[in-house]
């Protein structure tokens, strides 16, 4: 039709859009790249080469859902409903203490890394359930990802969803690198003493996070 405006693809990839996406990616990495319960679990599974794809997929998809919820404004659900965070706080602390105790018990009787046919099998459903618990029973994930990241995303003028897309990409890159890159350290963990140190470290991290979750005021 004469005189009709032709849509331009360049608008989609405008500088503001790219800037928002890159900002989201960097902001996401700044929140996620830390010593925490979920990251130590991903590292542990990566070292064992045990259902790593499942673990990485669960972490990445869960983060994507939480990021989308934050960008969509789901953080408002917590306004005036402190009991929601309290429920997650108590359940999360109990889980962290329990898993920390298991890590401490493993440290008492460490074993070498075994990935061959004779390695003890752990079901995919058990690993998936543990990964889901580490992800969704952590009250900090709702405050960091849903509330904080969502608030920052909505300051990005007309580009909050591009900010969210960048944040999702950052999350995916991190979990893929952590889960699949951990195998580079596998030769070190062929010795039981290495697992002892790792399990002691995991136990200390989880108990410390559990105490912080239980006793630090959230708000």
UniProtKB/TrEMBL annotation:
Does this entry carry the keyword Acetylation?
no
Question: Which keywords does this Swiss-Prot/TrEMBL entry list?
Answer: Cell membrane, Membrane, Transmembrane, Transmembrane helix
User: Where in the cell does this protein reside?
Assistant: Cell membrane
- Name the major location: membrane
Q: Name one GO molecular function term.
A: amino acid transmembrane transporter activity
Q: What Pfam families does this protein's entry cite?
A: LysE (PF01810)
Ranges that cross the membrane: 12-35, 55-77, 83-105, 126-149, 161-185, 197-215
Keyword Ubl conjugation in record: no
Membrane topology per the entry is: Multi-pass membrane protein
This protein is called Amino acid transporter
Source organism per entry reads Prauserella cavernicola
């Amino acid at each position: 039709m004469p005189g009709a405006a032709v849509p331009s693809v360049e608008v989609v990839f405008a500088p503001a859009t790219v800037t928002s996406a890159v900002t989201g990616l960097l902001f996401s990495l700044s929140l996620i790249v830390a010593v925490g319960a979920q990251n130590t679990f991903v590292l542990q599974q990566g070292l064992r080469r045990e259902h790593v794809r499942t673990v990485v997929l669960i972490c990445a998809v869960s983060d994507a859902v939480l990021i989308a919820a934050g960008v969509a404004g789901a953080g408002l659900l917590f306004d005036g409903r402190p009991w929601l965070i309290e429920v997650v706080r108590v359940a999360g602390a109990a889980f962290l203490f329990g898993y920390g105790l298991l890590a401490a018990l493993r440290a008492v009787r460490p074993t070498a890394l075994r990935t061959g046919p004779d390695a003890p099998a752990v079901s995919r459903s058990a690993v998936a359930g543990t990964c889901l618990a580490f992800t969704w029973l952590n009250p900090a994930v709702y405050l960091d990802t849903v509330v904080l990241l969502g608030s920052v995303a909505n300051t990005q003028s007309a580009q909050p969803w591009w900010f969210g897309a960048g944040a999702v990409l950052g999350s995916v890159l991190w979990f893929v690198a952590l889960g699949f890159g951990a195998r580079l350290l596998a030769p070190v963990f062929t010795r039981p003493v290495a697992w002892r140190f790792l399990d002691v470290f995991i136990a200390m991290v989880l108990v410390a996070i559990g105490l912080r979750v239980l006793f630090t005021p959230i708000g």
